[in-house]
Amino acid sequence: MASAVTRPARLSLELPQEVSPDLAPELCEQARAARDPRFDGRFFVAVVSTGIYCRPVCPAPLADPSNQRYHATAASAEAAGYRPCLRCRPERAPTGDEQADLANRALARIEQTATDGGGIEALATDLGVSSRHLRRVIEARFGVGPRALVASHRLRVAKRLLDDTDAPITDVALAAGFASVRTFNAAVARCWQRSPTELRRLARHRRWEAAPPVRLRLGTRTPFAHAAMADFFSMRAVPGLERMEAGTLGRRWQTAEGSGDLQISFAPSGVDLELSGQGTLPLMDLLGRVRRLTDIDADSHTIDAALARDPLLAPGVLALPGRRVPGMWDPFEGAVRAILGQQVSVAAARTLTARLLRLCDRSGDAGPLPFPDPGAVAAADLSQLGIPATRRRALEHLALACTEGAVDFAAPLERWRNSLLALPGIGPWTVEYLCMRAGRDPDAFPAGDLVLRSRLGRDGRLASERAVRERAEAWRPWRAYAVLQLWAAQATQGP
Predict the structure, then answer these.
(1) Which of 57-61, 99-103, 403-407, 437-441 has the lowest mean pLDDT?
(2) pLDDT of residue 19
(3) Second label for 215, Cα 20 to 30 Å away, from 149, 260, 323, 341?
(4) How many percent of the chain have pLDDT more than 90?
(5) CATH class, range 331-493
């Protein structure tokens, strides 16, 4: 434990614009006295008399300088025997992005992957150094070893999930990277001297406050054609509903208990999520939606190997391995957008969907909007959309069927496949397209698709649907992925 800090005779009240994480005790004391938010997350203040450590912005009364100790990380403070303050909640402190040396790169990597349950050996291999060297560098830089940093980050993630979600304790423990609920409970008790249930009870009254963002990494099996998927969503991003900037997809989420924003950043090893908002964060629901949207659970190695045996598909597979089937945020939303996109360009489909959003919106809010539910679409005057009557009636029938339960997207896939086919204006192509993307059926196959008939035709003539089906037998059970390959080939090579 560091020695006591002595207050200098004269101190400047001016704080530098940029400071190093290696702050002198005098500067730490100034920052703590000023509660300057620019220092939040750069160091932590531990109080000997209480056994508690805080962020420099904590509103609690200042302790005597002789009782204060300064730590570069929360993990260092915890390793010295201090417990986190329940008032300023150190687990919510922002983290720096310093990556100038190995230790800072290791810290950044730990914060990305600690919840995946990876070990120190894997971290060292990823950084290109030996585990012994990594431990030595991290201990010299932060005062604790890499295992302590991993444990501290997992606890911070868990605390935020306890505070901001209603996810069961078991789900919180697993999402934060703990091997079992028993080890999770023990770690929480050591850190906060309370059980997870008690911590959640203390946070209940803050549920409708704006919560700091929750950041998570969802890893995937490689290869993962992340740029192709980002481009797919970028072309179809609907103004007012979605936004695509610099490879990051953002959209609004809303439930009866809360609302907020979600951002998905695509990377070769998976996707990074940032979740924010007010109220109860529906963590498990959002994670499930993102996994389906990005298809990150697919085994691309197996799928690509199967498709590459076909000479027609092999060039595309070899040129860009790891192509996935982009999912849909919600089956009803996907069905509406598929109907609006019938016989029009992708750009026109975006415009029509944005028009529907404004038509169904009653909030008057100029910001991002959630997609309207079936009741809102059924009650809207769809004649103002400016679409053909057959498509308008198809939307009306779909919304009414979903409202009355005739179409239930929570039912088994084959059931809602048949119930959709029974609706006027919804044909096999639309249903199979929805099964590919919203139903996550890897073998869904719109045999009547014009691109497929064109790519499989001869001498400039379209292949028949029967011929397409027969040709596609060799692609089973990955026909949906074969469709993506042929669509991509058409987009890059032309007719």
Answers:
(1) 99-103
(2) 32
(3) 323
(4) 41
(5) mainly alpha
Per-residue pLDDT tens digits for 226-236: 999 999 999 99
Contact 254, 370 (CB under 8 A): yes
> Who wins on pLDDT, 157 or 486?
486
Domain boundaries, the chain: 25-92, 102-206, 211-297, 331-493
Q: Where would I find the H helices in 114-240? A: 120-127, 131-142, 146-164, 169-175, 181-192, 196-203, 226-236
Contacts of 119 (CB under 8 A, 6+ apart): none
44-63: per-residue pLDDT in tens? Answer: 999 999 999 998 888 888 88
**Which residues are within 8 A (CB) of 134 and not within 5 positions of it... i.e. 6 or more apart?**
102, 106, 120, 123, 124, 127, 146
Residue with tokens 């919203």: 438
Helix (H) or strand (E) run with residue 489 in it: helix 479-493
Q: What angle do CA 199, 203, 205 make, to 5 degrees?
A: 150
Domain 211-297 of CATH type 3.90.550.10: no
- According to CATH, the superfamily of the domain at 102-206 is Homeodomain-like (1.10.10.60)
Residue 93: partners with Cβ closer than 8 Å, 6 or more residues away: 40, 41, 44, 55, 74
- Give the separation between CA 305 and CA 296, rounded to whole angstroms: 17
Q: Are 137 and 102 in contact (CB under 8 A)?
A: yes
493, two tokens: 């090579």
Q: Which residue has the tokens 């007010």?
A: 278
Q: How many CA atoms lie within 13 A of 224 on its CB side?
A: 19
**Spatial strand order in the sheet of 258-267:** 210-219, 270-279, 258-267, 248-255, 242-245
Is there a contact between 53 and 128 (Cβ–Cβ < 8 Å)? no
Q: State the Cα–Cα distance between residues 343 and 351, nearest whole angstrom.
A: 14
- Tell which phi-psi region holds residue 47, choosing left (phi > 0), alpha (psi between -120 and 50) or beta: beta
Extract the tokens encoding 459: 């001498």
Q: Against a cut of 0.90, is the pTM above it?
A: no
DSSP secondary structure string for all residues of 420-460? HHTSTT--HHHHHHHHHHTS--TT---TT-HHHHHHH-BTT
Pair of tokens at residue 74: 């929360």
Least confident of 70-79, 328-337, 400-409: 70-79
Q: Which active-site residues does the annotation give?
A: 54, 449
Superfamily covering domain 25-92: DNA Methylphosphotriester Repair Domain (3.40.10.10)
User: What's the pLDDT tens digit per position in 86-126?
Assistant: 888 887 776 543 333 566 667 766 766 655 656 677 777 77
Distance separating alpha carbons of residues 38 and 41, to the nearest angstrom: 8
Report phi then psi at 263, rounded to 5: -125, 135
Identity of the residue numbered 418: N
pLDDT at 407 over 90: yes
